[in-house]
Design brief:
Layout lengths: L9 H5 L10 H5 L8 E5 L7 H8 L4 E6 L2 H14 L5 E5 L14 E7 L8 H11 E12 L5 H13 L2 E5 L6 E8 L5
Parallel strand pairs: 1-2, 1-4, 2-3, 4-5
Antiparallel strand pairs: 5-7, 6-7
Length: 189
């Protein structure tokens, strides 16, 4: 599925305040994020969701922002410092084997992958990695753009998630998006 990665300079456009008119982070994420939570934002760009997540988790929570592009993380860090939220965000450049994520195993209460799964070259491997990070009772929200990802491709994503021991917990209706909320299956399931 992966053909390209969104270029870093698009991060400025994606973090635009006008986007909130269509995709309000507080409305989208509010039902899933609680104060004190440990949250994973995969492919955060320059923080359109990361900054509201950092606000929602509060001073005792943590947002782990993972990206493959250093310039995206630099832009996020700059915006977080201006917003007074930089100390709530852990900025991590993703390495190829996920070794820099081992300390998060079983600790993620909520994970977000917004408009980025289609860019991952090894989606089953990516999903297995997310599964390892999830805390008991945690949830993972995956959303893909309808203008770029077909319903058939998103159905394949859901099937891959099922093979990786995730179940669909809900299908939130987000405009212009294919969206699923996943819960990891327990060992007993």
């Amino acid at each position: 599925m992966a053909e390209h990665v969104c270029p870093w300079w698009m991060g400025h456009l994606l973090a635009n305040r006008l986007r909130r008119l269509v995709q309000n982070p507080y409305k989208i994420l509010g039902p899933y994020v609680r104060e004190g939570a440990t949250v994973l934002d995969v492919g955060p760009g320059m923080g359109f969701f990361s900054l509201p997540l950092a606000d929602m988790v509060g001073s005792k929570g943590r947002v782990v922002a993972l990206d493959i592009q250093p310039k995206m993380l630099e832009g996020l860090r700059c915006r977080a410092e201006k917003a007074g939220l930089a100390d709530r965000i852990d900025y991590r450049l993703v390495d190829g084997d996920g070794q820099n994520l081992a300390d998060l195993a079983g600790r993620i209460d909520f994970a977000l992958s917004f408009y980025m799964v289609h860019e991952v070259p090894d989606i089953p491997g990516f999903m297995a990695g997310i599964h390892k990070l999830m805390a008991p009772g945690g949830t993972w929200l995956v959303s893909e753009p309808k203008f770029h990802v077909s319903q058939e491709d998103f159905d394949q994503t859901i099937a891959m998630a099922a093979r990786t021991r995730f179940k669909v917990a809900a299908r939130p209706n987000l405009g212009f998006s294919h969206t699923a909320l996943f819960r990891p299956l327990s060992k007993a399931e």
